């Protein structure tokens, strides 16, 4: 597009601004004045095209003011004044870069305005004044007035609230900044997040130009701090939500004896979760102090800590006496008809005065193998008397006893049965019935030895140790 086209676009924009100003209540006089000035600008936009047509004419050109005036003005006084003005300064047309810079002085002499100025206040060949074209009143073209908040930058009315021209022409903001009230401002802060004046609420931060809640798992405590699976954002920190302190949600603390199972506070004293999540007890077990325990034992019968007494067993979850005919020695052991449960064993009753020892009826008052109790056997030479083991010694004395006066002991040699009567028979009747022989008989609770004289063929248990 040529110079005329770009200037025409600028003028069209300005006409739109004037229309908007009139609609917003700007006084008609002010709008009309700006419109007249814009009309002069329109003429300026047309002049280059008009002049180019003149220059292309072989018979005219810049050296022919009459031709130029004929091109610029219709027949009439304006065209005559134009020709008269150029006649006063021959060659002026070729000296000025742009006809719009030709301005007639108060003395009526036309001249070229300095660079960056234009003839404002009149038209070509009319009284005007060379005016700077870099002000908001005459921006680029006479009469082009910039709006509030604009400045004349390189001959164009430019808003001063953009990142390219922030507060002043050419004042460009750097990356991440915006132009806020004419000042380059960081748009990554909570005061100006993404846009000027966009303030973030308490607990938010400016993340990539967006006010963002910092209490989420995507931005926990800071922008982009993502919590791992199973974590939650608690007070700005990624926190494990599978613990008893934060079970499922932040601050949800489980009670004593509970654990966090699948994000739910769960009793850890049950058979489904015994001591830890998912630890299931087998059938017949109970959860005792966090441990699966067999509830069919005498220590925990039917329930944790229920202990059975002495002689009892745990039968079907209940403590039962194990000395009965229905639970003899063990649960469910039933004695047959005619039997009795004695000491945990089913036995057939013995005759009066006897007791069953390992299924054999014995008299524990006299039985040397079960003396006073089953299995209590007396030693060699011992006898069982009234349920107690005793060891008796028989001594025969007298001159008639084979001419000896020392004591003799013959128990165990085949002559003495261990009883006092047997000792008397041995000394007075069996050995020397005609002699004056006396006997001595003594019993002890433990075995011993004695000096039996020459008749003893060895040591016998007839007297306790000395």
What does this structure look like?
- With 466 residues, this protein is α+β, with helices and mostly antiparallel strands.
- Among the domains are: 3-159, no CATH class; 341-377, no CATH class; 384-455, no CATH class.
- It has helices spanning 3-23, 28-55, 65-72, 77-88, 92-95, 420-431; strands spanning 102-104, 110-112, 117-120, 129-132, 150-153, 156-159, 177-180, 183-186, 204-207, 210-213, 231-234, 237-240, 258-261, 264-267, 285-288, 291-294, 312-315, 318-321, 340-342, 345-347, 355-357, 360-362, 383-385, 388-397, 438-444.
- It has a three-stranded antiparallel β-sheet with strand order 23-24-25. It has a two-stranded antiparallel ribbon with strand order 1-2.
- A hairpin with a 2-residue loop joins β9 (204-207) and β10 (210-213).
- Mean pLDDT is 76; it is low at 1-7, 23-34, 36-62, 401-414 and 450-466.
């Amino acid at each position: 597009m040529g110079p005329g086209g770009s200037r025409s676009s600028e003028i069209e924009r300005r006409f739109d601004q004037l229309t908007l100003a009139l609609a917003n209540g700007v006084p008609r006089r002010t709008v009309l004045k700006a419109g007249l000035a814009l009309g002069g600008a329109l003429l300026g936009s047309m002049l280059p095209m008009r002049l180019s047509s003149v220059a292309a004419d072989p018979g005219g050109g810049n050296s022919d003011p009459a031709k130029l005036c004929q091109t610029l003005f219709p027949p009439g006084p304006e065209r005559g004044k134009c020709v008269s003005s150029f006649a006063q300064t021959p060659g002026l047309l070729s000296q000025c870069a742009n006809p719009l810079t030709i301005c007639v002085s108060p003395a009526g002499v036309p001249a070229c305005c300095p660079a960056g100025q234009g003839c404002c206040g009149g038209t070509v060949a009319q009284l005007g004044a060379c005016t700077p074209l870099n002000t908001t009143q005459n921006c680029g073209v006479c009469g082009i007035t910039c709006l509030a908040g604009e400045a004349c930058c390189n001959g164009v009315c430019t808003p001063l609230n953009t990142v390219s021209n922030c507060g002043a022409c050419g004042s460009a903001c750097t990356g991440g900044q915006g132009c806020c009230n004419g000042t380059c401002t960081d748009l990554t802060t909570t005061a100006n997040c993404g846009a000027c004046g966009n303030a973030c609420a308490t607990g938010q931060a400016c993340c990539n130009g967006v006010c963002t809640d910092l209490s989420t798992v995507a931005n926990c405590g800071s922008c982009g701090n993502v919590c791992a699976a199973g974590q939650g954002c608690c007070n700005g920190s990624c926190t494990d939500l599978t613990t008893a302190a934060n079970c499922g949600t932040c601050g949800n603390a489980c009670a004593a004896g509970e654990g966090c199972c699948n994000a739910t506070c769960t009793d850890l004293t049950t058979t489904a979760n015994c001591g830890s999540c998912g630890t299931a007890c087998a059938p017949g077990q109970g959860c005792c102090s966090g441990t699966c325990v067999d509830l069919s034992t005498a220590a925990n019968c039917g329930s944790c800590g229920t202990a059975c007494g002495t002689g009892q067993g745990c039968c079907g979850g209940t403590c039962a006496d194990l000395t009965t005919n229905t639970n003899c020695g063990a649960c469910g052991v039933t004695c047959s008809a005619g039997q009795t449960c004695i000491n945990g064993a089913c036995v057939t009753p013995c005759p009066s005065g006897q007791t069953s020892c390992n299924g054999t009826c014995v008299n524990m008052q006299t039985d040397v193998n079960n003396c006073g109790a089953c299995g209590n056997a007396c030693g060699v030479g011992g006898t069982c008397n009234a349920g107690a083991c005793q060891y008796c010694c028989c001594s025969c004395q007298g001159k008639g006893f084979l001419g000896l006066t020392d004591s003799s002991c013959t128990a165990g040699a085949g002559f003495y049965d261990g009883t006092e009567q047997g000792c008397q028979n041995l000394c007075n009747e069996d050995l020397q019935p005609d002699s004056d022989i006396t006997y001595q008989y003594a019993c002890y609770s433990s075995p011993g030895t004695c000096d039996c004289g020459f008749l003893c063929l060895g040591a016998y248990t007839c007297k306790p140790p000395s």
